[in-house]
Design goal:
- The protein is an all-alpha fold.
- The chain has a domain of 110 residues.
- 73% of the residues lie in helices and 3% in strands.
- The protein contains 21 helices and 3 strands.
- Strands 1-2-3 form a 3-stranded antiparallel sheet.
- Strand 2 and strand 3 form a beta hairpin.
- Helix 2 packs antiparallel against helix 3, helix 12 packs antiparallel against helix 15 and helix 17 packs across helix 19.
- The chain is globular and about 80 Å long.
- The mean pLDDT is 83.
């Protein structure tokens, strides 16, 4: 027995476990601080409060963590598809029997407690993807392998969008990290990043300015493919200078002038060189990008509802948002974090926290409490803890010998990273407010249970690797 205990003690990743438990503890303390009142001395076991309910969830999560460490990971490999099927069935049932909260039918309620199947489905989606990549020896460099994997991810995402819960659906983009690590061609991710950047630019800037930049980039790419660049650089510089001069008077006229110059230059290029394929490559690409930019602008202005426009404006065009309406949450969040200063106001001394200036402070905006009461130092410490945890998870993934184990580890790290990035970012106004909890810290059982289960299985997989 002593040899077995020493074997477990020496091969188990206790550091990762203690970091996990530390974050959970900090989270509960912050949830307690949100509802703490000097005049009311309530027991921490008062289950009518958020911190009391969270204690119940932490207790259940602890049991789940221990169980997931004990269970042989082969179980998850064998039953990954049936578990995903059950998760999808729950996502269908919620459309008929779920409770609608904040415009989204995403919750099953059981008395004082509620469960979010979209959150719980992350684990089945991850193990199913990891199984698909390992059991079927999927070649992600082929279109069949790549799009089959996307279809597997898209199954729960599509059902979540029917609720609709776009914020939850966005978090499943973490599984793209798994596809990239397992060999998917980088061009798909470059294209996705380009689309996101073009979408953002189309919302922030005038359509003609976006077209101007696209034409300029297209011209530069064509020039760099041409062996004798000097005449083309001179011609491009003259065209660009003329277009900019005209744009000082009128953006639209300047963009049209540059567009004409670009196509005339491309036509000359096509007739005088043997690199005609470049014209047929960059020309359609720029046209498609321009059409996407125009459709984005049109959809935003004429199709989206006012409250949907407000969410995007709060993120990308805050000056156009109502500070007493759609922008109120972010402004109060920034004010509370900034009021904490370097060292914070002290635990349980957050004035803005106690007065509930920030809505959803114990869930989506739990980091605000950290920033106000613990200041820059406390906020930085929490961020460092998450950074260490996520880094260790990716390092564990790199050490894994099997495809299932490596894909699973990268999926866990990806989910944590996406949640962490969006949640911290939206409290500071750097990301859109989409209702994403901070893992292990925000109030709520669904997020805590699923991330604890993910970590337990990961720790067991890592243990098996060490002892094999």
């Amino acid at each position: 027995m002593s040899k077995y205990r020493s074997k477990v003690r020496g091969n188990f990743d206790w550091i990762t476990l203690w970091i996990l438990l530390s974050i959970i503890t900090i989270g509960w303390l912050m949830i307690y601080a949100v509802e703490f009142q000097d005049s009311v001395h309530s027991s921490i076991f008062n289950f009518s409060t958020s911190y009391g309910k969270q204690l119940v969830w932490i207790g259940l999560a602890t049991v789940l963590l221990a169980a997931s460490i004990i269970i042989n990971p082969v179980f998850w490999k064998i039953f990954s598809y049936p578990i995903l099927l059950l998760a999808c069935i729950s996502l269908v049932l919620i459309l008929f029997f779920g409770a609608e909260i904040k415009g989204s039918q995403s919750w099953f309620t059981f008395g004082a407690f509620s469960v979010q199947p979209g959150e719980l489905a992350k684990f089945p989606a991850l193990i199913a993807l990891a199984s698909f990549l390992s059991f079927h020896k999927t070649d992600l460099t082929t279109n069949k392998g790549f799009f089959s994997s996307l279809a597997l991810i898209g199954l729960p995402v599509g059902l979540i969008m029917l609720q609709p819960d776009a914020g939850m659906a966005i978090t499943y983009s973490a599984l793209l990290i798994v596809l990239y690590r397992e060999g998917a061609h980088p061009i798909w991710f470059i294209a996705l990043l380009s689309i996101i950047l073009l979408f953002i630019a189309s919302i922030i800037f005038d359509f003609f300015l976006v077209v101007f930049v696209l034409l300029m980039l297209g011209s530069i790419l064509i020039i760099f493919h041409f062996p004798n660049r000097h005449p083309w650089f001179l011609a491009f510089s003259l065209c660009l200078t003329l277009a900019i001069l005209i744009m000082f008077l009128d953006w639209q006229i300047g963009s049209i002038v540059l567009m004409v110059m670009f196509f005339l230059t491309s036509l000359v290029f096509l007739l005088t060189t043997r690199e005609q394929r470049l014209f047929f490559l960059y020309g359609p690409a720029i046209i498609l990008a321009s059409l996407f930019s125009f459709s984005t602008t049109y959809t935003f202005e004429h199709v989206l509802k006012p409250h949907q426009q407000d969410r995007i404006n709060v993120w990308l065009r805050p000056s156009l948002s109502d500070p007493h309406g759609s922008r109120y949450n972010v402004l109060q969040s920034q004010l509370a974090i900034g009021s904490g200063g370097l060292m914070g106001k002290g635990y349980l001394n957050g004035t803005l926290t106690k007065l509930n200036y920030v809505p959803e402070q114990n869930t989506d905006f739990i980091f605000v409490t950290v920033g106000e009461e613990q200041g820059f130092v406390g906020g930085a410490a929490v961020i460092i803890l998450y950074a260490i945890l996520i880094s260790r998870i990716f390092l564990i993934g790199e050490k894994m010998k099997g495809v299932f184990e490596r894909a699973y580890a990268y999926g866990v790290g990806g989910f944590l990273f996406v949640h962490f990035m969006i949640n911290i970012g939206m409290t500071m106004g750097l990301m859109p407010v989409v209702g994403i909890p901070l893992p292990f810290m925000s109030y709520g059982g669904s997020s805590l249970m699923v991330f604890t289960l993910m970590m337990g299985v990961l720790l067991r997989l890592d243990y098996n690797r060490r002892v094999s």
